[in-house]
From TrEMBL:
Residues 460-704 form the Cullin family profile domain. Coiled coil: none annotated. Keywords: Isopeptide bond, Signal, Ubl conjugation, Ubl conjugation pathway. GO terms for biological process: ubiquitin-dependent protein catabolic process. The keyword Cytoplasm does not apply. It comes from Trichuris muris. Belongs to the cullin family. Pfam families: Cullin, Cullin_AB, Cullin_Nedd8. InterPro entries: Cullin, Cullin-like_AB, Cullin_homology, Cullin_homology_sf, Cullin_N, Cullin_neddylation_domain, Cullin_repeat-like_dom_sf, WH-like_DNA-bd_sf. This is CULLIN_2 domain-containing protein. Residues 1-18 form the signal peptide. PROSITE patterns: CULLIN_2.
């Protein structure tokens, strides 16, 4: 308890307020009255207590205190106020004066100063904070707040200078952080208690005069007189940095002191990070940058990218943990940024391009963990992902070019193997993308772009891809279940999306599909329809319209052949021994070339064909049917017997070998001639069959080449290049020594390589002609919709519209525009010939629909 003098002062204040002319609202606010259950108001206990103390001080309890009397005599005047006793009698109380004299102000301040010093000395158990609050309240209420505020500053500063600073200076070289943290804890605890005592000054005086609050004043003084005192500031920063350096070296360090110091520096900023940044964070970041730079060179000296990225990743985790748990939250991102610059940005090219352990080595050895670690590190810094993608792109393009070159130089690598290699490479890249690069969209685009680059390096890539799909869909190919087949087709379609010349693929795919359908070699209709569905999804219905028409023709042909066989069974008495299976092909759907116009079919075969033709035309009037001998196949019963043996009467043969020869229609026409003559020249064969020279030479080479005992025909050549050329006077006869372990022997038609080059040029010319028409149709469609369009914009729209089938060259588009202008489909703007075109009149609708 304080001396009773303090009690009397506070009591006098309250009594004076109750009787004088001060506003009643002031008294009610301070006394905080509450309403009781009877509806009357009752003063709070502190007011009753002060009245009781007052009564005791003036002798009502039979006790007299001379100190209290002398203290109160200086401001109590002669005017008295009556107060009723408990027994009903009245007593007189002097009224409180309106003004405080200097001596009372000084005595009140001395009382508060002593109390503040006791609080700073942690000897506050004997203090009454209620009495201290009321004394401070009195001084502020009577306009002496400046004395109280300035006095507080002096007392706090004196304590910090004479006590706290001295203790800290004595501990500079021994337990600085422990001493400083304890001093800081004691100071903040004291300032909280002092702030509570001077709460009224905080609410009134501080706000009116725009000065620092009591607590903030204590922080500022501690900052200026202790933390930033000469010798302490620099030493504190160095101690903190040495502690962090020791932690980085793996030493055991009590980081709790670091956390307390950082919290102290943040608090000393008074709603600002300035003190923390200047005294710790800025030097910490500078020292960290130097440390990271030195450590990165130590890591690089091992010349191992995997080791480097793992150590850097470990360093990031450690720095993040320390900053997160012991420093300000904003420091973590800053120190990690410094680390990224020093250990990643400055060395990302070196690490990525390390010859024996860099990105390329990781890709070749499928080190997914290292790739993922490298990816995450490079993703942290600006430009890191571009470094990774550029190196990855260079590696993929090199791999693709090597495979293209391998196809050209290595004869063992077939087109099908080439596509298989690309699919395997794509599988590897997809695995890297998902397992190492977290399906990053930018990397995915780079991979697709690189595959498109080297896939289109070879202009025959569309043909190769079609051959690959044909190989997988043909019956008799490598056994695969439905799931495996669907998977491999999906992978092939990924490559198809990257093709630029999809129209060339369409042409070859129709050729290969036609052979599968006509020869009944397709693995299943469901698999074929699945491919068509995927092509329709990628390129639209127009792309697959003809392919779907081919399937429809096969179905209609199957239905028609059922009808034909029923008719044949009714006419079986005619004695025909030839069975025929025909496919009705719609012109325009099938990629058929012009057959030999004068090809002579054996009479028996032609008679059977005419019957089938008449039956078809009888139910389909207005149509014409033309035989396509270059697409047909024939099974021939062939009898081979040694020289000198003749056919006996009755049709039997002695010592003969019977085989079924699977040949083309052209081969059948040639072989049937040898039923009439034993030996024929090439000129005679050409005259008898009417087959064009190109097809006939290919046919004769296929029948007369191979192993001696596996050739169907023997040949007496008159030219030097027997394997490639046939002379007009070359003679042919049946090989009587023909032998084969197989009863059913397939005689393939050889492809003359000398004819492949002209055929490819012819195919290319047809495709170019078709493209010209498609480009013109696209131009007319666009201009019909837009009416007027600038030249560059028109070219861009044409390319965009046609890119699902092929990517036209800008030069081709310009030439087609000029052609349309010449033919008056388009006209130039007379004001700007180079930049704008207009549609003139109505365009040819047939051209638009192409």
């Amino acid at each position: 308890m304080l001396p009773l003098t303090g009690m009397l002062v506070m009591t006098s204040i309250v009594c004076a307020c109750a009787k004088t002319s001060l506003p009643r609202r002031t008294v009610i606010k301070e006394e905080n009255r509450t309403k009781n259950s009877h509806g009357s108001f009752k003063a709070i206990s502190c007011f009753a207590t002060t009245i009781a103390i007052l009564l005791r001080s003036i002798g009502l309890n039979g006790t007299y205190n001379p100190l209290m009397q002398s203290t109160s005599s200086s401001f109590v005047n002669k005017k008295m106020t009556s107060v009723r006793r408990e027994g009903g009698s009245r007593m007189r109380i002097r009224a409180f004066p309106m003004n405080m004299d200097e001596s009372y102000v000084q005595s009140t301040w001395e009382l508060l100063r002593c109390a503040i010093q006791m609080i700073q000395s942690q000897n506050n158990s004997v203090l009454s904070f209620e009495e201290l609050y009321r004394n401070a309240y009195t001084m502020v209420l009577h306009k002496h707040g400046d004395k109280l505020y300035n006095g507080l500053r002096e007392v706090v500063m004196e304590h910090l200078v004479n006590k706290v600073r001295v203790d800290v200076l004595n501990a500079l070289n021994n337990n600085l952080l422990e001493v400083l943290n304890k001093a800081w804890h004691d100071h903040t605890t004291s300032m909280v208690m002092i702030r509570d005592i001077l709460m009224y000054m905080d609410r009134v005086y501080v706000q009116q005069h725009c000065v620092d609050s009591v607590y903030n004043l204590g922080l500022i003084l501690f900052r200026d007189e202790v933390i930033r005192y000469e010798g302490i500031r620099e030493h504190l920063t160095e101690v903190l940095l040495k502690m962090i350096a020791a932690k980085r070296q793996g030493d055991a360090v009590q980081l709790v002191h670091l956390k307390t110091a950082c919290q102290m520096l943040l608090a000393l900023g008074v709603n600002s990070r300035a003190v923390y940044e200047e005294d710790f964070e800025a030097p910490f970041l500078l020292r960290s940058a130097d440390f990271f730079q030195r450590e990165s060179h130590v890591f690089l000296s091992e010349e191992n990218a995997s080791v480097y990225i793992r150590k850097v990743n470990q360093r990031i985790n450690e720095e993040s943990s320390v900053a997160k748990h012991y420093m300000d939250a904003n420091t973590e991102s800053k120190v990690i940024k410094v680390l990224e610059v020093e250990m990643i940005s400055k060395h990302m090219y070196t690490v990525t391009e390390m010859e024996a352990s860099g990105l390329v080595s990781m890709l070749k050895n499928s080190r997914f963990d290292d790739l993922n670690c490298l990816y995450r590190l490079l993703l942290r810094v600006e430009g890191g992902l571009s470094v990774l993608t550029s190196t990855l792109s260079e590696y993929l393009r090199e791999q693709g070019r090597s495979r293209v070159q391998e196809l050209k130089n290595d004869k063992s690598v077939t087109p099908i193997k080439f596509i298989q290699n690309l699919i395997e490479l794509k599988d590897d890249c997809d695995l890297f993308l998902t397992e190492a690069f977290e399906s990053n969209r930018e990397i995915s685009k780079i991979i697709a772009s690189d595959f498109a680059y080297f896939l289109n390096l070879d202009h025959r890539a569309p043909e190769y891809l079609s051959l690959f799909i044909d190989d997988r869909l043909r019956r008799g190919s490598k056994a695969m279940n439905e799931v495996e087949l669907e998977t491999i087709i999906d992978k092939a379609m990924v490559l198809f999306r990257l093709l630029q010349d999809k129209d060339i693929f369409e042409r070859y795919y129709k050729q290969h599909l036609g052979k599968r359908l006509l020869n009944s070699r397709t693995v299943s209709d469901d698999a074929e329809k699945s491919v068509i569905s995927k092509l329709r999804t990628e390129c639209g219905c127009q792309f697959t319209n003809k392919i779907e028409g081919m399937f429809k023709d096969v179905q209609l042909s199957s239905s028609f052949m059922k009808i034909y066989r029923e008719e044949r069974e009714r006419d079986f008495a005619t004695g025909s021994e030839i069975e025929i299976s025909a496919s009705i092909l719609t012109t325009g759907f099938w990629p058929t070339s012009n057959p030999s116009p004068n090809c002579v079919i054996p009479r028996a075969v032609e008679a059977t064909f005419e019957k089938l033709k008449m039956l078809y035309l009888s139910s389909h009037s207005g149509r014409s049917v033309t035989l396509q001998p270059h697409l047909g196949t024939v099974d021939i019963n062939a009898y081979f017997y040694p020289h000198g043996y003749d056919v006996l009467p009755g049709g039997s043969q002695q010592s003969s070998q019977k085989h079924i020869l699977c040949v083309s229609t052209y081969q059948m026409c040639v072989l049937m001639l040898f039923n009439e003559k034993c030996c024929l020249t090439y000129r005679q064969i050409a005259s008898e069959t009417g087959i064009v020279e190109k097809d006939l030479k290919r046919t004769m080479l296929s029948l007369s080449t191979g192993k001696p005992k596996q050739r169907v025909l023997c040949r007496l050549a008159t030219v030097d290049d027997v394997a490639r050329q046939i002379g007009d006077e070359d003679k042919f006869w049946v090989n009587e020594s023909f032998t084969s372990r197989l009863h059913r022997v397939k005689i393939p038609t050889l492809s003359n390589r000398s004819d492949q080059e002209p055929e490819q040029h012819e195919v290319r010319k047809k495709i170019d002609d078709q493209r010209k028409l498609e480009v013109e149709a696209a131009i007319v469609r666009i201009m019909k919709a837009r009416r007027a369009l600038r030249h560059d914009a028109l070219i861009t729209e044409v390319v965009d519209q046609l890119k699902r089938r092929f990517v036209p060259l800008h030069g081709m588009v310009k030439l087609r525009i000029e052609s349309l202008i010449d033919r008056e489909y388009l006209s130039r703007d007379p004001q700007d010939h180079k930049m704008q075109f207009e549609l003139r009149g109505l365009a040819n609708e047939a051209l638009i629909r192409r």
